[in-house]
Amino acid sequence: MLKVFKLDNKNSFKNLIKFLDKRKSIQKNQTAVVSRIIKNVKKNGDKAVISYEKKFSKIKTKNNSLLFSENEINEILKRTNPKIKKSIDLAFKRIKNFHSKQKFLSFKFKDKYKNTLSYKYSPLEKVGVYVPGGTASYPSTVLMNCIPAIVAGVKKIYLTTPSLNSKINPAVVYAAKKCGVKKIYKTGGAQTIAALAYGTKKFEKVDKIVGPGNAFVACAKKEVFGDVGIDMVAGPSEVSIVADKFADANLVAADLIAQAEHDVNAQSILITDNKNVIQLVNLSLKKQLNKLPKKNIASKSLKNFGLAIYTKKRQNIIDAINTIAPEHLELLTNINKEIIKGVKNAGSIFIGKFSPEAIGDYLAGPNHVLPTSGSARFSSGLSVNDFLKRHSLIKITKTGIERLGSSVINLAKHENLDGHANSVKLTLKKEK
After folding, report:
1. Each residue's pLDDT tens digit, 170-184
2. 10 and 73 in one domain?
3. Which of 117, 119, 187, 319 lies in the 20 to 30 Å Cα band around 250?
4. Choosing from 327, 330, 357, 368, which is the catalytic residue?
């Protein structure tokens, strides 16, 4: 089960970093293959997309259709489970309510020279949302990626999901329609990322691409960044759980497994100051895994990337969290407030025994699109702001240019930018 790692000195922190880096290194670089796919799509458009889809997804391309028609969508919606519809409706309401409180307000003020300085926000026009398909099909991904765009004011949201033999999870379609998605494409992979980034006859060229995918999708997003915006380059999912002697070992084990069942490369880490907790959690893991449908995936994940960090020092617990910078952090201790105060690097923090990470995945309200692989050190989860552009507005008065102009000229000359200096000089001369 979980390998035990004692954290008690600087050298042990170095070893912890080595362990974390091992997981990063197995994430294969697909750059060469992906570059060829992108180049082909840019040159040959839909023809290239269809070729790759026939190869990988056995897509049924009647009349070379890469889109689900309205008739297809209506038929699919009839097959949506009513219980799932109700749950999606609840999730939509809660997620939208949370994100509605995030909207950034424009502001305007005047300085002492009566210069008017302000910020203005405007939404992106077109967004592409990638939703995993095939063996993994997540209506929750639709909600988490589309709703902040809706709140931001994005008018055109296009969704794409790999559809083996042109089949799609009805719940994904229901969630998409709930979010007002304009088009649903049947395609996936790097070819779809390229099509969204550069446009084809069938694909609208978008301003930003969001949503998770496999290694090829992640690599493709990285490759097209700069020509189009992206949310992040996401790696396998991860959780770190801090538990003390008061924590329920069965709950801890259940939440470690919940993360491990995602992917063989998922990372599940227990941090504790009590050796007995480790023993109890390991025992519970064995029992719960035997009943798990995805036992093989979860077991491999826990074997390769599962870890139980033991330390008696509170500061080491906090330092371990900030070193790992986990996507999800769960706190099951009697010193949660102290830990929260010290945590700087974490995607989403779940506090107390009634806050399993799974509730955040679906309908707590905050976004489940979070930084992975240590990127919580410098980035945050998806938000409304990711779909907004911020514009600065500057209106300088006659008094303002007279009082500020000389300093601008001095700085421009210092940087050997005489054209800058002359433009201000000319403005001042014209005002005399």
Report:
1. 999 999 999 999 999
2. no
3. 319
4. 327
